[in-house]
Design brief:
This protein has 4 helices and 10 strands. The protein is an alpha+beta fold. The protein has one domain (4-170). The strands form 2 sheets. Strands 5, 6, 7, 8, 9 and 10 form a 6-stranded antiparallel β-sheet that branches. The radius of gyration is 16 Å and the shape is globular.
Length: 172
Amino acid sequence: MLKCIAARRPLIKMALFVFGTLMPDALIAQRTDGTASTTTDLRTCPSALQVEGTPEQIAVRCAEDFVRRNGYTEAPVDPSSPLAFEAIEWTDSIPRLLAERHASLEGKAAGICAGDRGAPGYTVAFRRHTPTSAATGRAVTMSPQFTKLRMEHVDFILAAIAQRRLNCDPLS
């Protein structure tokens, strides 16, 4: 049985689980106008990015867009825009969350891997913008239909891309 503490903020409704893992689809983002947007919307690649290219090229575009609009790059983010939350977030403040994410990742993907944690789909890896460890980065996973985009909580070992392990290929 999971214990849950709910926190309400003007922009989001977010739950912090004391024991267990919070599934991203359980979160609901709230726009400032009061209308709700399910995380399914926030975790689906915009159709405009899916028009041409190989599935791998589309997955990379989707992941790069996801990290940009969720505040991980140097690009500015509107704090009133709904955000996709990670499975574990350490703050309930949107400004603090955006400050922690800001410029943490490069905007261009470093590599792509076939598969999403052992399931069909894609894993797109990003280097840290200011490397605390040049050996690791972060990764966005998604389904083969470019839905269920998720920033993985654990670090991604970048050597897997360079060594073409785990069905990974480097990107230029």
